[in-house]
Structures
1.
Amino acid sequence: MGAPRSLVFWCLLSVVLTQRVKVRNEVTGYVGDEATLQCLFPTTSSDVKVSQVTWMKEMGGKKQNVAVYLPDHKPNFPLDNSGRIRFLNVSLQDATLIIQPLRMGDEGTYICEFATYPHGNEDGVTTLSILARPTNTAESRKVVAGNTMIPVAVCTSANGKPPARITWIATLPGNFNASEVTNGDGTVTVTSQFNMVPTAVADQEQITCVVSQRTLTEPENIPVTLSVLYPPQVTIEGYDDNWYVSRSEAVLRCVAKGNPKPTHYSWSTPSGPLPPTVQVQGDRLLVQSVDVAVNTTFICQVTNSVGTTRVEQIILVRAQPNMDGAGSTGGIIGGIIAAIVAVAVVATGVLIFRQQQKNRTEQDNDDLDGPPAYKPPPPQKKIEDPELDLPRYHELPTLEDKEPATMGPSLEDEYLDQINPIYDALSFASGEGVPEQGFIMSRALYV
Ligand SMILES: *[C@@H]1O[C@H](CO)[C@@H](O)[C@H](O)[C@H]1NC(C)=O
């Protein structure tokens, strides 16, 4: 731990001692902007004399003078005297150079040099990098589905500096490669292709081009929707294996996917023309009334610009409706009907019970003039009497109490008519009786 640290320290110290010229390692700027190439020589001792400052640029392995200053002389700029290059301060301690506006050609390595006495020349090196923000675009290529790997999308980062790096994000299997072209102005255009085996499944899928470049604070993501042309994929829907003679409104539908979207559908049979009883409505084949003429195979043929696909549907016309498999549906319907009937029975029972309760209470109050605490005897008597083959309804306690057990059915019915108008409608005996309330129901249901 100690050894590397002290090594670093001595290296830094030596730099400080020998490299007294203060420069930045790298300066960046955009074309048209201003670049400041800092260069300072802070003289710490009056023993050191500076006689000249010079900026040089490395060009093709040689050094070219860019800016020269001597005391008592005008600063000179041998490479470009147009005023685009100048000193920030005219000074023997500060040789900071300004270049404005920047040109692509200004990029390079610059050396700032102070001629001193007694130590000789002291210098610092700065790299000036010119940046250019690229224009990034990506698009899919219209490709036809096939078996070989081909470029399906292209991403371009144009006129950037330094060159961009392009990658792709894709869930589909594929790879990518990139190529670079250096433009006349020194910028670089990078092009990357995403390659894959184009399949119908990849059509309309999205992949993303990711461009990274120094001038971009974060990578730029450009989504691309793939476009793979493929011939129609066709199915025929609507045959339920229950086409029987004289069935009405049997329909077949030809369902097709494709890129481009298929628009042309054609129906036929193996023998050629369609039976006269069918109607074609685009992708639909309508049979108003099924007959033996449609006991055949129907062919749907769909075409787009890529190709043509034909599929067949064999139709079996039956003499009778196909009951196989209808069990489940029938069972469900039967269950629903049973449930409705059950609900109706229960509801009816409740209504009758309430009616009886109400009537009984009224009867008790009118006839007995007593409190309703009156307790009727048990109904066994009625059951003991075999002659009275009456509905259970007759076993009401109020009835037992009011009338003797020996009472005939007609009398009893008369009584029941008084206490309960519903009974009127239910009773076979009193056919002429009309219910006072509009409540009529089947006796069978009640019993
Ligand atoms: C339809 O054709 C099949 C044989 O392909 C035959 O078994 C069937 O009886 C035919 N249907 C009618 C209604 O003739």
Note: The helical segments are 2-18, 326-368, 380-384, 397-402, 409-419, 421-426, 443-446.
2.
Amino acid sequence: MNYISTRGAGAGERHTFSDILLGGLAKDGGLYLPSEYPQVSAAELARWRGLSYAELAFEVLSKFCDDIPAEDLRALTHKTYRAEVYANVRPDPQHGHTAAERAAQITPLHSLGVENGAPLSLLELSNGPTLAFKDMAMQLLGNLFEYTLAKTGQHLNILGATSGDTGSAAEYAMRGKAGVRVFMLSPRGKMSAFQTAQMYSLQDANIFNVAVEGVFDDAQDIVKAVSNDHAFKARHAIGTVNSINWARVVAQVVYYFRGYFAAIEGQPVGSVPEGASAEQRAAVAATTPLADWPKVSFTVPSGNFGNVCAGHIARMMGLPIHRLVVATNENDVLDEFFRTGVYRVRKAAETYHTTSPSMDISKASNFERFVFDLLGREPARVRQLFHDVETQGGFDLAKSGDFARVAQFGFVSGRSTHEGRVETIRDVYRRYQTMIDTHTADGLAVAREYLEPGVPMVVLETAQPIKFGETIREALEREADRPAAFEGLEALPQRFDVLPADAGSVKAYVASHTGA
Ligand SMILES: *Cc1c(COP(=O)(O)O)cnc(C)c1O
């Protein structure tokens, strides 16, 4: 498997999965993608249906990381996707599954009911250590980093800025990992008590919480300034784990397969005779063309387009996905594009602070990957368009006719607002006795616009309600459910250092803790 940049520089070079694992952007500012998408066959899908999450992850990742020996990769997926790591399951008495059974599934499917003839369900991606879907990829990244660094004898100092979910997912993935330190900047006093406690209560020696005297943008600017000091970056082996990291995207591809299989569970594939055995059914499925497999739609609460980009890749591999529904909140950069063909990044003053804050983005950093495919993989045009983003704030693909092809990729979109998500949280609680978080509520509100009879709709659950408890109180007039492992979290001792919002202080801090 060879990886190329969406902007085409170094087209003659070869990059393996391990080459791009620790890096971020390609040298030309583009994003990495495989030179072509590996394909799945009906025989593979028929076999994969019955696999555990860890085995399925091994099969999917094998197609993308062919430079890691198979037994090593298998050990990594089994170490990552264990029931003990994804144990924050909520009870599901309606469906008679025990907590242990649900944890063993890693990403259990929680079916709600049938609406407009479409079976509607939630794919639970937030049962990991930080209660948000970012754990799904970040936990693998932690193990991949440790494995790769040990092989080469290198070490890595991860520098990041967070307003909540990403930073804690990174810290929980990297805690105690040999060869890795994490320096995570957060705006002092600006995160929720729960999010603050989640990060600052970590006592691991390789985790450094830095509370910056400023807002999130100040913290992010500091990370950019430090990263632009190439000499400092090289001397201190500074790396990042942001959402454009290819390994994070590819790890997320796995749960689209898992969600697909769960959504069609029990459904025959192909023409199966009455009373056929499980083996006979599998044999028929294995020879049924992918076009004749049942179709499933997914709705994805979206910000930086990382999660839904993984869905796009699963679909390009041949997984029978009908629609990929992109759901945004009031920060509707992506919804605007999928409705009109205009991609227009927002200025700071136009970026709203909402009650689904992990989707509050001004531009979608992974979007370039989809644009590359939409334009038939012409790097010169991608380079021009993202140059236009820098100079003119965006581009319009309706004029050139490229936008007309979006439908072939299955994409549609919608947006939600604060009132919409509060109403959806209330409705889902009353109708299905299920408590959902604000981001998932944006997803469900938009999913309801795209239900089609007979096509299962899977909404990705991206966080648990306890992370956004204030809005739960507003919607339901009660406290959000708190997984047992998080009782008393806010009372634990916290460990962090406070620094002024300037790059010099952060550099001095990093230098004093890396000893280089
Ligand atoms: C990060 C995040 C999102 C957005 O995901 P993208 O991959 O950036 O599109 C949605 N919901 C939650 C809870 C998140 O943490």
Note: The longest helix spans residues 134-152.
3.
Amino acid sequence: MSYVQGLKCRECGRETGLAAVHVCEFCFGPLEVRYDYDAMAGNVTHASIAAGPPTIWRYADLLPELPGTDPADRVDLGAGFTPLVPAPRLGAALGLEDLWLKNDTVNPTWSFKDRVVSVALTAARALGFDTAACASTGNLAHSVAAHAAGSGMSAYVFIPSDLETAKVQAAAVYGQHLVAVKGNYDDVNRLCAEVAGEYGWAFVNVNVRPYYAEGSKTIGFEIAEQLGWRLPDHVVAPMASGSMLTKIDKGFTELTRLELVAAAPWKVSGAQATGCSPIARAHKDGSGVVRPVRPDTIAKSLAIGDPADGYYALDAVERTGGAMEDVSDTEIVDAIQLLARTEGLFAETAGGVTVAVLRKLAAQGRIEPSERTVAVISGVGLKTLDAVADRVGPAFTINAGLDDFTAALSLSARAETPGR
Ligand SMILES: *Cc1c(COP(=O)(O)O)cnc(C)c1O
Ligand SMILES: [Zn+2]
């Protein structure tokens, strides 16, 4: 059964029916999916969730699945229910005693975007679309192309032409239509708003964005379920448009409302790269005004200069008592290495941003050592190998002889002797 009632404007509260629209026709505010929470009470339970599949769709009752959608018609490659793992070694390095990592690198296309795309395309298909499209900083293109291919839809994905090679090729391999645009993400997004008006496609982050955005709540649901149906004290999440962070907070709010977790305070904190930090800056300078910027950072998956959910992310962070910080490209790469070396997890640059900000907030005392803290690691390092390319490599290159190895080993041991 579906508890979805329609769409509702976040600003003026006007309600509309389920359709492929994302802005209110009265005030141009963003539309959000509306649910019948009263009808859920007593029906959506720990047991009903546990009876579902080990994917985001175990939370189908809390997702915008249109009435009458057959589970077999979901656009589903198995996203979600990713590991939540304790991180004692990284925690020790940062002075945090109860640190956990939400490892979203193991999704079907190796980033958290599979959550939002699976939900968006499932809704799009139920609304009658057979073609999906998106403006992307890379991971979204990869995920939309894969989900379209795997469900017999077709897709047009638009990316900035200067993306990491791995992300371009990974998005192209699924045989969909990949369009490289000369410009940055904000240019691509502007073009897509026009294309969406001209062609009858489901643009996952334009006309079906209300459905898309709901997919991120599943990170919050999973964290709580995996902690034994308890909320963490603190979540640190990366921010591009600010949507994921906003929806993790919404997920916790819904679980509390449905009494699926005991009511308890939580904090959400946001992470950005200094080279694209319009939301963090608005928080730190106290102005509360999100001023668009021209991105210049290696964290390309977070390089949205004009973030659609910036104000909602600010609200979530300030309302829960969290914090925002930004970090340099060098700090990002340091953090990628620190995470890999302490926990065996290789994250892309967005993960480096999250861990570097976690480190900063811990050092500033804005995360207490005893807080149960979860860092969201949202994408895999193999897609951004360039970030570490000039820092790591073979210990030594030798001929295939035991003597050669022994000689190289003693040379390198001497090189590592302290005080030399
Ligand atoms: C898209 C993305 C995010 C966050 O995106 P929002 O627009 O803030 O929801 C975080 N990490 C990675 C790897 C991403 O691709
Ligand atoms: Zn409105």
Note: The pocket of zinc ion (ligand 2) is lined by residues 9, 11-12, 14, 24, 26-27, 29 (CB under 6 Å).
4.
Amino acid sequence: MNYFNYQGNELYCEDVPVARIAEEVGTPLYVYSASTIERHYRVFSEAFSEVDHLVCFSAKSNSNLAVLKLLGSMGAGADIVSGGELYRALQAGIPPDRIVFSGVGKRDDEIRYALDTGILMFNIESSEELQSVQGIAREMDLKAPIAVRVNPDVDPKTHPYISTGLEKNKFGVPVTEALTLYRQAADMPNLDVVGIDCHIGSQLTSVHPFGEAVRRIMDLVGRLEAEGISVRYVDVGGGLGIVYNNESPPLPSTYAETILEAVGGGERTLIFEPGRVIVGNAGVLVARVLYNKKGATKNFVIVDAAMNDLIRPSLYDAYQEIKPVTKTDREAIVVDVVGPVCESADFLARDHLLPRLGSGELLAVMSAGAYGFPMASQYNSRPRCAEVMVRDSRFEVVRDRETYQDLIRGERFFEG
Ligand SMILES: *Cc1c(COP(=O)(O)O)cnc(C)c1O
């Protein structure tokens, strides 16, 4: 359920015609629906209302300050994977005691920053990281709250680039090694063992891998408790999938049933790190048609958005639905929607059936609210596009379109 719908022939975001935003702000441009983000957050969080829980929104899925602020004001925390994301979360007013820090490669300065801030916990992903955190916490004369990220070796049955809980992935540590790490951590004076964590992948469309992963980490919790190591937080990560095309991902309520059954009661606080399911269908990328071009075997619609604005189709071969911003009854033809970037991988859609759209007409790439703008680059020296947030009949630019000056910010001539 989201708030991008046609009224008559016009695509609206909430009560604002998308075309009106594009006229005022220009293209390409991301448009987010505040009501959709709120709705998705609420449905997710309410699915767990019977238990003590904290929803730490995955900041990497959409790190715009306006998005973080909106979620933070509803009670969300943040799952961060860098010092930069910590900075953003704090700037957006998310309290540090609602922030968890994941990621396999935390630098010393990032660890120090997070300790200084007083985050809820570090999700530790290796033995060397455990030593680092202990060392830095000792220097700072405080105790670092930690969880170990367990790699439960469960197949999430999703795209290989977004699987994270298989033995061969770089994330987390295997169950047996986790046991060793916990024993070591329990003996380290500047660590406070507070939790356990896993995150097995993204865009999961079945609940079974979640259930299996949680059963495996709860089994480990049992073994830890038998040794006198107790955990307060069970962080089950994110990964719940959304509808891009014809997937049928589980409802948050079904997901909740699976997780709660696998956790099996107890007084612990559950932590979730959803990203995509909160913001994925709360945003679209709006582009304008530049040219139509007939190749030898294909019809190309060349638009002003490109892989530097939205890389999911190129990187994951991901399908994203494309809709004309103004519906037309012109005949539909099979097209590739491509951008101006000089790479053959620069496409937003391949072999899509779309009504013929002429130069100057607008289209919307749907389901672009997660892993859209945060993955944008300036490749081909294309300034990154604007982002707009809509609520009801109002809209505001929440990130300015970059300028040519922004492109060279910080650069200087070599004086050699
Ligand atoms: C990316 C990521 C998430 C969010 O995944 P979604 O599929 O967007 O819900 C959560 N936790 C960690 C550790 C991640 O790396």
Note: Residues 58, 60-61, 79, 81, 102, 199, 202-203, 237-240, 273-277, 370 surround pyridoxal-5'-phosphate (CB under 6 Å).
